[in-house]
Amino acid sequence: MPLKFTHASKLVTAVALGLALLSPVHAETVIKVGLSLAKDAPGFDFVNGMYEMFKTEVEAGTKGSVKVDLVYAGALGSPNDRLSQVRRGTIQMTDAADGNYATIYPDIQVLSMPYLFRSEQVAWKVLDGEFGRKMAEDIRAKTGIRVFGFWESGGFKHFSSNKPLRTVDDFSGQKLRAIGPLAVKTAESLGASASPIAFNELYTSLKTGVVDGQDNSISVFRLVKLQEVQKNLMLSSHTYGVGVLAINDAFYNKLAAPERAAIDAAAVKALAYNRKSSRDSEREAIGSLKSSGVNVVEVDAAGRQALANKMQKPVRDWLQGVVSSPALIDEAKRVADAAAL
What we know:
Elements: H1 7-22, E1 29-34, H2 45-61, E2 66-71, H3 79-88, E3 93-94, H4 98-101, H5 120-128, H6 130-143, E4 145-161, E5 175-177, H7 181-189, E6 193-195, H8 202-208, E7 213-217, H9 218-223, E8 232-248, H10 249-254, H11 257-291, E9 295-298, H12 301-320, H13 327-339
Helix pairs in contact: 2-11, 7-12
């Protein structure tokens, strides 16, 4: 016998359907992260791997209520563009380094003073300590970006050249690639001339002699195969490369307390992963470069001091007109020296 629906039953069904359509559907929270490098970029696990660790830990720690969407290969724009998107809240995180942050927070440039840090471990001690915490809070207050910590962007930078580099005198008359006023001051202090070569033009410019040399971490040096066009690498360790692990502060503050706690814990693990991976990558890269015929020159304490004597004063003088307070320069030096004891 076929079922017959009364007018009342049809009304009840319609109301139930309407309520179902109006019922809120729980939408998961997504942290979108813009990254520079392709997924599996060789030698750069200390960047991509760090964010992949962060993703794993956040999603596990929140039981999936917060997802992390990693967007690779610069698909969301240039580093400075992505940093602006983080400030606006269009995306939540990006792998911007100190040079990018200098465009919105000039004080971060004190970390790039030549020979500020005597070792990677000294840098970590300063960045994880009171000085780093104060800078992180200042960045949050002035930019709206909450800093979890500072990651290692390949470690120390070193000079390379088409010409032999053994002492400070070998820089005189060379043409060095330099991006930004701080890098220009550094190059000119050594008696070199500075040229603003874009990163994607660096290999060709070195190969054709538009510039003689450049400075980067060893990991970056190998990533773009500079060993094919640069056979002289001086382990000058003159500037320490820093990245910033951070998130849009307004987005973070809207999360539930347990979700914020899980993100904080994930950031700690991601930073530890970055630093270990970066150290491992550099050690492996040095051996690889030597095997490929690069003349790797170790610089002793006297050699580093000679370089410091040339570079430090011009950079400090320039920074005094750039940072919020000249006292910040002295504080950074004092804290770094104390951390080295």
